[in-house]
Each structure stands twice: as structure tokens, then as C-alpha cells.
């Protein structure tokens, strides 16, 4: 999707990714998870609902989607290679050679696919800005405390273009789904170690906006209501892109 300014031949392009879309364990590592079935089904194993949301956004807005379904307990695709937490307590004890094999087979292919998709979008005629939306979800209760955020928009507040877009998206989402608690940089901060933060290092603020869309998994419990709310997220994103790209 490329909202276009009526005043100039410029456009925004959208890229959708999902780093924690499933809890699949590659056959080579299944024995490691024989005693961890419950953990795989939990929020530590994957982001429930995130891939479905990513697919809806991509399909509705005709945007490319780069998604992954290998469990984050094998390797966390939303961590940089230098992060000490990219491997879980299950795979961290593996040999250096085996961990490098995991990076080669499951981590780097996803990151490379995202970078290629970004490059293709930036090469399109008239495209000035790529908006990257990474779809995630989070557990409703953390360390015994119930989280009040329904939808979190994570970004880097030091980038004026991202801060401005976050305000617009939040405003549009509150207008379309006033029952949702939509917060900026909650329940996490948008500038910590991760994919969008790493891509910001390589791309100028005027050309790349990196957002993580965080959905409270509590919303998934009411399927009918969640379908309506998901559509509101997409409509709000569409409206925000139209507004931001026309200024």
C-alpha cells in the first residue's frame, strides 16, 4: 500500500513482519523440547494472534509480509545477533557450532528476507518512506500484575517522524475503537534491542519508520469482538498513513 500525497509525487510503502508467529520446533531440536510442551504453548513460546493480525494487515493493504513460525525458544528473531538473550535457556547450553547452525538456518534467513523486502520497497518509483509494522502480542498478566494496555504502539521517540506517526495512529485507533486502551511505548519500550532498532541504525529517519504493534492477548478471548477490533487497527493504520503521507 502506498498512500500518495496530492501535492507531490511521493508515497509511503508498508512492510509487515511477524517474528514470533508460531511455536514450531524444527525436527533437529525436538528432543530438547520433550519436557517443555506447556512452555511452548505459553507466551514464551510464541505471540498468539500476531501472525493472523499481520496477515490481515498485509492482505488488506496489499503489503509484503515476512513472517516466521519457529518458536522463539529456539532463537528469538526479535533480538540482534549480539544480544545475550537471543537463545533461550533450552538452546543456550548447545555448542557454539550448533548455535551458529541455528542462526544460519532459522535466524539469518528471516532477517535477510526483511532486508530484501525493505530494499525492494525503497527502490520503487516515488517511494520516499517505508513504514515497517512488526506484529506482536503480549501476555495480559506479568509478574502477578494485570496489564492495562490493550494495544501498544512501540517506536523510538527520538525520531520525530515516528513520534508524530504514533500520535496519529493512536488518535485514529481511539476514534475507531474507543473501548481499547491504546498506549504509546507500552507495555514495552520501542527503542530496546530488536529488529526495528537495528534497522534504524542503517536507515535514515526520513526513509524508515519502525513500529512494533503489541496486542494484549486478552483481546483474543472474545473472537467476534476481536475480529472487529482487528479491522479497526487496520482502518486506523490506513487512515494514519494517508494523513502522514499527505503532509
From TrEMBL:
Superkingdom to which the source organism belongs: Bacteria
Pfam families: FGase
SUPFAM superfamilies assigned: Zn-dependent exopeptidases (SSF53187)
Entry-linked InterPro entries: N-FG_amidohydro
Protein name, entry field: N-formylglutamate amidohydrolase
Amino acid at each position: 500500500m502506498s498512500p500518495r500525497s496530492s501535492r507531490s509525487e511521493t508515497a509511503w510503502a508498508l512492510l509487515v513482519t511477524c517474528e514470533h508467529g508460531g511455536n514450531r520446533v524444527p525436527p533437529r531440536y525436538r528432543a530438547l523440547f520433550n519436557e517443555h510442551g506447556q512452555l511452548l504453548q505459553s507466551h514464551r513460546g510464541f505471540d498468539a494472534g500476531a501472525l493472523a493480525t499481520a496477515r490481515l494487515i498485509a492482505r488488506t493493504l496489499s503489503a509484503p509480509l515476512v513472517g516466521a513460525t519457529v518458536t522463539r525458544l529456539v532463537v528469538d528473531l526479535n533480538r540482534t545477533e549480539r544480544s545475550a538473550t537471543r537463545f533461550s535457556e533450552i538452546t543456550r547450553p548447545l555448542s557454539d557450532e550448533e548455535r551458529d547452525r541455528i542462526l544460519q538456518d532459522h535466524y539469518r534467513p528471516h532477517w535477510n528476507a526483511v532486508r530484501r523486502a525493505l530494499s525492494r520497497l525503497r527502490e520503487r518509483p516515488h517511494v520516499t518512506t517505508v513504514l515497517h509494522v512488526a506484529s506482536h502480542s503480549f501476555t495480559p498478566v506479568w509478574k502477578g500484575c494485570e496489564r492495562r494496555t490493550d494495544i501498544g504502539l512501540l517506536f523510538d521517540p527520538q525520531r520525530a517522524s515516528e513520534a508524530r506517526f504514533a500520535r496519529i495512529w493512536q488518535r485514529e485507533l481511539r476514534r475507531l475503537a474507543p473501548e481499547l486502551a491504546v498506549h504509546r511505548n507500552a507495555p514495552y519500550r520501542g527503542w530496546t534491542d530488536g529488529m526495528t532498532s537495528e534497522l534504524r541504525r542503517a536507515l535514515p529517519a526520513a526513509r524508515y519508520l519502525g513500529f512494533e504493534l503489541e496486542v494484549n492477548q486478552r483481546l483474543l478471548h472474545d473472537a467476534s469482538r476481536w475480529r472487529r477490533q482487528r479491522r479497526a487497527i487496520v482502518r486506523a493504520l490506513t487512515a494514519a498513513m494517508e494523513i502522514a503521507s499527505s503532509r
